[in-house]
Write a structure and sequence with these properties.
By secondary structure, the protein is α/β, with parallel strands linked by helices. Helices cover 56% and strands 12% of the residues. Strands 1-8-7-6-5-4-2-3 form an 8-stranded mixed β-sheet. The chain binds NADP nicotinamide-adenine-dinucleotide phosphate.
């Protein structure tokens, strides 16, 4: 069973006198920097010369070059896109690392797949929120907190877990809770959910819409019933609070009978094999190698895939329905 940490398990005193360097001020870096500062921590922001510097200045930080903040920080939290981390780490972070530094990643990706290999004299940890950056800030402000995965990658000082938990508390995560996992597990789970569940969901939704539209059902009615009404959001929200079975049981008896009596049709799709193949590709590093090549070449396949998606008439109909209904 996994260990779950809550506020009582962390001591903010371990952070006293320490400076936290936030590297990257995008979706997640920005809310974390603000949460930590609101928890009275000393925070510095390190960025390249680019547009997120303005966001940091707007929020009252004085952003500096990444390399210049490293010697002045005890803890370095990386909030850069996964595919750029290894390059930035090699050029702007690793030459300036010293004994006692703690490197904190927001995703296990680069450590798990070997793109970053920190020296043995630094501590390495993971605090990976299980929600989007916006919610990291709003749930800090409303006091509800958000779930995270925490993990120790390297423990040179012997105090890595204690410091990670204090940081997770200061970020606001421990009000909900943090589950301890290995860095490999976090990286694999994250990719698996993205690659095994979301494509299936997307495919089911678009196929259903295409079938209904082809048969002449009005686009507004189809889109409303499938997504715009928010019924799925409510369903998933109940499932996240009380479990999938509870959410299923909230449907009418007609609905429940329809769901359970037709479930086997989807079992015939042999999803297990597809999911195992997806997980194999993630675990043996094929996916991360493919994604690195994609980044080095300037995202050619991603660009083509996005363009192909955008051309689907379904999305235009969806936008039309949204405009008429919202
Ligand atoms: N997004 C989320 O809600 C979320 C949730 C959980 C975990 N995470 C994890 O958090 C990490 C950060 O994700 P994110 O969504 O916050 O990323 P993001 O918004 O795309 O991050 C952008 C930041 O990275 C900087 N950056 C981009 N390319 C750079 C480069 N080549 N050199 C230096 N700086 C560069 C950008 O600076 P410029 O202004 O200079 O471009 C900006 O400050 C990832 O590991 C992700 O898996 C994200």
């Amino acid at each position: 069973m996994a260990t779950i940490y809550r506020e009582i398990d962390a001591n903010l005193n371990v952070l006293s006198g320490k400076t936290v360097g936030i590297i990257g001020y995008g979706n997640l870096g920005r809310p974390v920097a603000n949460n930590l500062r609101d928890s009275s921590l000393r925070v510095m922001v390190g960025l390249r010369e680019d547009f997120t510097r303005d966001h940091a200045r707007d929020d009252g930080f004085a952003p500096q070059d990444i390399e210049s903040i490293i010697p002045r920080c005890h803890i370095l939290m990386l909030f850069l896109p996964d595919e750029v981390v290894s390059e930035v780490y090699l050029e702007r972070i690793s030459p300036f690392l010293a004994r006692g530094h703690l490197l904190v990643f927001a995703s296990g990706y680069n450590i798990a797949f070997g793109f970053v290999e920190p020296p043995p004299f630094v501590d390495v940890g993971l605090i990976a929120p299980r929600t989007i950056g916006e919610a990291v800030r709003s749930r800090f402000l409303d006091g509800s907190g958000f779930y995270s995965f925490v993990g120790v990658g390297q423990d040179a000082t012997g105090g890595t877990l204690e410091t990670l938990l204090a940081l997770a508390k200061a970020m606001g995560s421990l009000r909900a809770g943090a589950i301890e996992v290995s860095i490999d597990q976090e990286a694999q789970l994250d990719l698996f959910v993205q690659q095994a569940i979301l494509p299936a969901f997307h495919h089911v939704m678009t196929t259903a819409a295409e079938v209904l539209l082809e048969l002449g059902y009005p686009p507004e009615a189809v889109m409303l019933d499938m997504i715009i009404s928010g019924e799925f959001t409510d369903y998933l929200s109940r499932a996240s609070e009380r479990g999938l079975l509870h959410a299923l049981r909230l449907s009418s008896l007609t609905g429940q009978y329809g769901i359970f009596s037709r479930l086997h049709r989807f079992k015939e799709l042999k999803l297990e094999g597809l999911m195992e193949a997806t997980l194999d590709e993630i675990r043996n590093g094929d996916f991360s190698t493919e994604w690195s090549r994609e980044y080095e070449n300037g995202y050619p396949r991603l660009t083509r895939l996005l363009q192909a998606q955008e051309k689907q008439t379904l999305y235009a109909l969806e936008q039309g329905a949204l405009e008429r209904l919202k």
